[in-house]
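Suppose you are handed a protein chain with no further information: no name, no annotation, nothing but its sequence. What can you learn? This example shows the usual starting point.
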Amino acid sequence: MAKSLVLHRFSSASEFKEAVNKDKDQSLLCLFCGDGTSYCPIDDADSADGEILAFYVKVHTTLVDYLNKETIREFIDYTHEEYKKRYGEFLGNRIPGVFFDEIYLNNFVPWTNRLPEEFEARRGYDLMPLRAKYFERYGKHFLGMTGKFHHAW
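A reasonable first move is to predict its three-dimensional structure. Written in structure tokens, the prediction is:
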């Protein structure tokens, strides 16, 4: 099952709480409070002084989780190892390679729970406050962050 990172913006704590009670297919990851130009992490919506940005993790039960090592290992065993058995003599010459496009990733940001910890270990800073800034700046809930983000993952 694939996961995606989704951003919702709320103008008040009451608006946030009302939305949380309605939407049960997403789990809250973190909250930020801000003024449209800068955002700070908060522990709960009641402590917000300004607009609230809430990051949620949405589970897509019918999609493959490309960020899960075990899933991809199984996928490779199931597909590529079978190609090797059937067409091994042609791989690397008549069949120079195999490519699979993740076509469903066009409308959301892929997510794995390991990402914040892994990003900070590799880059030395917390990913999530910057995600809030870049999501909000362009007004798109599916926008990627920067070259640093994509390079790190």
